[in-house]
Specification:
about 230 residues; Rossmann fold; five-stranded parallel sheet; 9 helices; about 15% strand
Length: about 230
């Protein structure tokens, strides 16, 4: 049993990034957003002029061969993605990147390349790691696993509220359809599909405040540690 990882998984726009980040703040431990790692690879591929309409192992091989990607502390003391020696920041969170990240994340060589990097982060000590396959593939032996979700409409509203995440003119309905398609792709891919780990705690945050979700998760962690 691995005691040094708190795994937070869930579908797109479920609120897992917000919860995982604030959980790390409350506990005073590093927060690792693995989704941003896939976004960083997608952004670099787009910057390199690669057509990501149908990404393959062969197409992305040159990117992975030359890429330097890691989480390091920034000037604020928080862990942030360092890509080829620079912090890409909000450049990896654009609508264009979001539209291609799911097919890129389905490429087996990309997932294999990142899996080792993500597992190495356990060396940081107790961490919060957030993604879609943390509790099933990256750290299946983790003691603390949570699967965060919400209703389709709530998820669409949350995505619309995130600056830079959607194209102009987007509506709740259009974003809900995009999220549903992202779910379909994530759950049906052959490599590490999105699913709740058998031993993960399901948290439906549709009608919960951020603090209520955090209080529930922290209470569960404390209870598990006492047993």
């Amino acid at each position: 049993m691995l005691d040094d990882v708190i795994a937070v998984d869930g579908p797109a726009a479920s609120g897992k990034s917000t919860i995982a980040e604030k959980l790390s703040e409350r506990l005073g431990i590093p927060y690792i957003n693995t989704g941003n790692m896939y976004r960083a690879i997608t952004w670099r591929a787009l910057e390199s002029g690669i057509d990501l309409a149908n990404p393959t192992d062969e197409l992305l091989a040159p990117v992975l061969e030359s890429l330097s990607l890691e989480y390091v502390k920034n000037s604020d003391g928080l862990y942030e993605i360092l890509l080829d020696g620079e912090f890409p920041g909000s450049r990896i969170r654009t609508p264009e990147v979001a539209s291609f990240v799911s097919p890129v994340a389905a490429v087996s060589s990309v997932r294999s390349w990142l899996k080792d990097k993500q597992r190495d982060m356990a060396s940081l000590g107790l961490i919060v790691m957030e993604g879609r396959d943390i509790g099933t593939v990256i750290f299946p032996e983790a003691k603390h696993k949570f699967f965060l979700t919400a209703s389709p409409r709530v998820r669409a509203e949350r995505r619309l509220a995130q600056a830079g995440e959607t194209f102009g003119g987007a509506t709740v309905e259009s974003v809900a359809n995009e999220i549903a398609e992202r779910d379909r792709k994530d759950m049906s891919r052959e490599v590490a599909p999105l699913k709740q780990a058998d031993d993960a705690v399901l948290v439906d945050s549709s009608y919960m405040t951020i603090d209520e979700v955090l209080d529930f998760i922290i209470s569960k962690i404390k209870s598990d540690n006492e047993n």
